[in-house]
Design goal:
The complex is a heterotetramer, with 2 copies of chain A and 2 copies of chain B. By secondary structure, chain A is an alpha/beta fold. Chain A contains 12 helices and 14 strands. The chains are: A alpha/beta, B alpha/beta. The complex binds thiamine diphosphate (2 copies) and magnesium ion (MG) (2 copies).
């Protein structure tokens, strides 16, 4: 299979180019995505290569999402961008009350195979209206699929899968990852099925479930802990709906300790769902499960404040030490 | 000429007879929950759908029974849907406010005010790429004109010259509140200018006028001229929903609007033109008979099967 | 304290009348709330009594909610109605990105003391766009307060507390309760503090945490079970933010069994949060905790279908029997 | 006469000097993250705020540094805010796109396009009941005119004759996309007619013109005449955000718009009228000196204290 050295952002771009080529029914649109190529450059070249099938829109999220629902009903596969997940809140109706209902209410005679690409999370200096992690909102909505890639390969693969899927899918990217290091990405491979977890690090002392950009901080923490003799298993769940509950249960049964780490604030976050599934399955644990996330607060712009809130590798490591009953090294 | 008008009369009577039967079934028990009738507004779907083609896509609201019928959805599965039967047009999943029958170019009711307008834009957009020449029709009420999604849709359609006809059924009320109190400039058709598209206020109680303007708007749309807004002036003869006490009506209002309601008006016109009363009345009888038997058949159908309640959430 | 015989809907109305009288800075507005008195008659008489301070609005949820944020910033106490919780999705931005940020971002120099009254849930024949229980969405948003009264007394008290509170509060009512039986309601009493749980039925075999209209079905199930020798403790949490975690932990420690029942669909519902808190606190349980809610599906209009999904007293009883290890009586 | 124009020049130079200092601090490191400058658009806040009163409430966007300054917020806490200092106008919680200083009648920036418009309606509504005679000003860009919330706000204000002035800063771009491609009728002021309110397209690079129309709109508003839409034509001389490559600019565009930018224009006008160059240039020096020392003082302030990060979520 061909491999290319790509950043996360470039991998998204490569996937979009592939999809536009192999699926003539795709359309790519949103604010500034076509002629300018996207505010992060992620949709670059699509307009040039595919003309009118990539186009810029007014600042009208209801029109963007609603028209995607309508076009999808009629056989297109729109891939629309909501520039920041925070902005989806001006038009959530079209996702929840419209897209998610099409197939069910029509008894399967109509469908809405649209893909919504967005990105979320805190970045240095970002304000409270440009920092939220909103996956838990979408994960409470039956009828949607949701994924959150953290690597160039997943950025490529998950998007390909999403667009080939026949239901509305949210692909939630992260702008702090777009310009990261280049990695070898297999491009042009077969469309993978939706779902599945990734064991990013095998371990035996504790199962750490995580997703999105937080995966990198968890891996960093796990490396530090490894040096202290704590062997953490890092299980990334890039697909959150469908969610691979089985993989989580299997790992937690083995390590008998569970932590869930996400950037979203803790109360009502999807970490609660993961813990509830493990508790509901009666997995015996050596210690109470731990949820690590942003405290329940708005997001301040100042870095000194934001850093005190968004979990970093240090805090993850500390909490895992406490969970495994070890002291921090002096 | 009188043939077309008799056809209009039939189209309208089918809707009215359907709605009156629904009202009865709601009172008697087989239909439960919130139901919004379009009694008095029949000329709009009758006139508009007459010039729509199978390839076109229509997006209505919760007050959409008439649109479904005019688009050619048979009455029986609609009755069945209202009564939660397995044979319902949505197998019981939609209910009164959420009919869909894409196979008839009826892309559905919608019970979120204004939400159908952007969706219609998408259907029109799809037509740009699939070679169908499809036009899309978005139907909503006067009150919906104040909803953000409708504004965004009109601008989107105009900016991209999408083949959309926006049909605003101005029945002068948004639920229980007069639209006149909720806008400063009462001619809603004039809002079209804001988007650079044509807007016409037309007689929505005259199927012929609706047909004329609809045909024209469709022609513009299919030629790449972009969207049109048609503000169809009408009145509902009934409450916003079944059970509405209609306390907001002015004294004499119902009598006044009954005088200009589309069916009575067309009937008088036909009689004045010399069409025999028997021919005119036969239309009503035919429509009522159709609806009686459709309702009866629907009543005989089995309820939606609870074992299927979780099916079709995902592909 | 004066008592009056009131339905749930009348109790809301009585609270609104009291609030308009005692707080001159209140305003009541929304679609059809003033001259018509509300589609459920709940805001009846306010226009007549208080003139312009109660008024009808265009069908513009962003304008309703946004103007409430602005008026609240300037010292008013708007009480606005979103007719169905489903409709909040056309304007969620104003609640999440605007109202919830005002106090935090201004460091407490500005506030947004608005109250959003809405109602939710399934009712016979209601479609997928008029049936959702959305409390979990709001409960994931720091900066909001959320409550869900289930009795006439709480309908009165919680609203009074909400409007006297200095933060944005969502009061989520339920239309199937508006026209229920009249009950004695103490009116005109002191403003109660926010928060607190209610032990609706004391018991020793299992703790059942619930809220909203579901409380009544849980109590019904508990009565049936009592006849079978299963003694359920029913803990209602009318305030969901602030949430009385302590009361839940105390009860679960005592009964050593936990069920959470809500009408919202299970995945990502607030039941997950409750279970995660109990698990996280390390409360030892005799059996895995159970979540009872609507399965993850859209809501069909047909009653035969909806009834197969929304939890009724029968299903609650069955699940509690299973949880306590008893068989259903033949 | 030239005194007022010198005052306008100072108001504009204060904004420009602030923004240029921000640009430098962003390049040098003390400011991080996304920053939207209003260089080239200074005449609008300068002219408009001149006729606002302390009781009035102003709601701006992320491109609102100039509005904060023109409203009287001192520069030092604004610089401090941009650098995450404890002394920032929001104690570091707002950042560039979310300044608030209610004590100066500056009710804040907003980084959700269009969201401030309904909030401004609420401030105006409050004035109906608190006897303040407050007017509210809602500022947004050309692109925001296509957002549903702005439409709803305009209708709401018009229907209820609320004292709101909607100021649309038409700088011809929504981020990286020309507004001309996103609307069919390019005169956005004409959209006011849809709501039954006056709308004027005015020279937004002339503080005097802005002041005139703003004063007039405020008068109408305070007399109960309801809202006005002012479309202020302008251009930004810089990118949408710091770092924008501005690939969308036409050849010669920047040169062209530099010729009509408000500060150079006013300077030329003053010189032509015989005001000594030294007096004119002294204004720039004064503004730059103020901003240099404000920035230096802000740089000396402590960072926001992490121990306070969770405070003030609830009352
Ligand atoms: C977003 C949204 N807000 C409010 C409602 C409640 N609602 C249902 S119908 C209606 C009135 C609509 O009036 P209009 O658009 O004139 O249509 P009509 O009912 O007169 O046909 C309202 C407010 C809704 N369904 N969706
Ligand atoms: C609801 C929403 N959609 C999209 C954005 C992203 N965005 C920020 S600024 C901007 C362009 C706004 O253009 P305009 O209204 O003309 O204002 P200008 O930036 O030119 O001052 C966009 C699309 C946003 N902040 N909020
Ligand atoms: Mg109407
Ligand atoms: Mg602009």
């Amino acid at each position: 299979m061909p491999e290319r050295d790509l950043t996360y952002g470039e991998a998204v771009n490569a996937a979009l180019h592939r999809l536009m080529e192999e699926l003539p029914e795709t359309l790519v649109y949103g604010e500034d995505v076509a002629v300018p190529g996207g505010v992060f450059g992620v949709t670059r070249g699509l307009r040039k290569q595919h003309g009118d099938r990539a186009f810029d829109t007014p600042i009208s999220e209801s029109a963007i999402l609603g028209s995607a629902v309508g076009a999808a009903m009629m056989g297109r596969r729109p891939i629309v961008e909501i520039m920041w997940a925070d902005f989806s809140l001006v038009a959530l109706d079209q996702i929840v009350n419209q897209a998610a209902n099409v197939r069910y209410v029509s008894g399967g005679r109509l469908s809405a195979p649209l893909t919504i690409r967005t990105q979320q999370g805190n970045a240095p200096g970002a304000c409270a209206q440009h920092s939220q992690c909103l996956e838990a909102l979408f994960l409470h909505v039956p009828g949607l699929r949701v994924c959150m890639p953290s690597t160039p390969q997943d950025a490529y693969d998950l998007l390909v899968t999403a667009v080939h899927g026949d239901d509305p899918v949210l692909v939630i990217e992260n702008r702090t990852l777009y310009f990261g290091a280049k990695e070898q990405v297999q491009v042009g491979g077969p469309v993978r099925p939706m779902g599945g977890a990734r064991t990013r690090r095998a371990g035996s002392d504790v199962t750490v479930v995580t997703w999105g950009a937080m995966t990198h901080r968890v891996l960093e923490a796990a490396e530090v802990l490894a040096g202290e003799g704590i062997d953490a298993e890092v299980l990334e769940t890039p697909w959150l709906n469908p969610f691979d509950t089985g993989a989580v249960l299997e790992s937690a049964r083995r390590t008998r300790r569970l932590a869930v780490v996400h950037e979203a604030n803790v109360t009502g976050g999807f970490g609660a769902e993961v813990v509830a599934r493990v508790a509901g399955a009666g997995v015996p644990l050596l210690a109470p499960p731990v949820r690590i996330g942003t405290p329940d607060v708005r997001m301040p712009a100042a870095q000194t404040l934001a850093q005190a809130l968004v979990p970093g590798a240090d805090r993850v490591a500390d909490e895992l030490r406490a969970l495994t009953g070890r002291e921090a090294p002096r | 000429m009188s043939e077309r008008r008799l056809a209009d009369l039939l189209a309208m009577w089918r809707i009215r007879a359907f709605e009156e039967k629904v009202r009865d079934l709601r009172a008697e028990g087989p239909i439960v929950g919130s139901v919004h009738l379009c009694v008095g507004q029949e000329a709009i779907p009758a006139g508009a759908c007459d010039v729509l083609e199978p390839r076109d896509a229509l997006f209505a609201t919760y007050r959409g029974h008439g649109w479904a019928l005019a688009r050619g959805v048979p009455a029986e599965p609609l009755f069945a849907e209202l009564m939660g039967r397995a044979t319902g047009v949505n197998g019981g999943r939609g209910g009164s406010a959420y009919f869909t029958a894409a196979e008839h170019g009826f892309h559905g009711e919608n019970s979120i005010v204004g939400a159908g307008a952007p969706i219609a834009c998408g259907a029109a957009l799809a037509g740009r790429f699939d070679g169908s020449g499809r036009a899309a029709v978005s139907v909503f009420g006067d009150g919906a004109m104040n909803q953000g999604a409708v504004h965004e849709a009109m601008n989107f359609a105009a900016a991209f010259s999408l083949p959309v006809v926006f049909v605003c059924e101005n029945n002068r009320y948004s639920e229980l509140t007069p639209i006149a109190d909720m806008v400063r400039a009462p001619r809603l058709a004039d809002r079209a200018a804001a988007y650079g598209m044509p807007g016409h206020r037309i007689d929505g109680n005259d199927a012929e006028a609706v047909r004329f303007h609809m045909r024209d708007a469709l022609e513009v749309a299919r030629e790449g001229g972009g969207p049109t807004l048609l503000e169809c002036m009408t009145e509902r003869l009934v409450g916003h929903y079944i059970g509405d006490a209609e306390a907001y009506r002015q004294p004499g209002e119902l009598e006044r609007i009954r005088r200009r309601e589309p069916i009575a008006r067309l009937r008088e016109g036909l009689l004045a033109d010399g069409v025999p009363a028997a021919d005119v009345d036969a239309v009503e009888h035919r429509a009522r008979a159709e609806m009686e038997s459709a309702a009866a058949a629907a009543l005989d159908a089995p309820f939606a099967d609870p074992a299927t309640a979780r099916e079709h959430l995902y592909a």
